[in-house]
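note to self: dont lose this again. the chain is below, predicted strucutre after it. 114 aa total, dont forget to put it in the shared folder this time
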Amino acid sequence: VQLVESGGGLVQPGGSLRLSCAASGDIDGIYAMAWYRQAPEKQRELVARITTGNTINYADSVKGRFTISRDNAKMTVDLQMNSLKPEDTAIYYCHVLKWGTNYWGRGTQVTVSS
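---
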């Protein structure tokens, strides 16, 4: 499974960004798709996760601001990020879980700064 992220960049506080991730390769059996992030000198953390059955989980810090969505036909997962804060600055990674195996994208930088 190959994952390619897009949509990162620099945005002012209060602004919005939309991240997209496309999965390709042997995509049969993908169960969960998710976004993680890692800020400098911090551990990687789950931002949002969506399963094949559309069960969704969000980190408390992004609830009400971020929305995850998934297109099973295209095997893509998007993250709409609104009301961005400086503390959202991080590298955002796409992740999928398939038959107990984790797959990661290379990451896309999101910087929230005035």
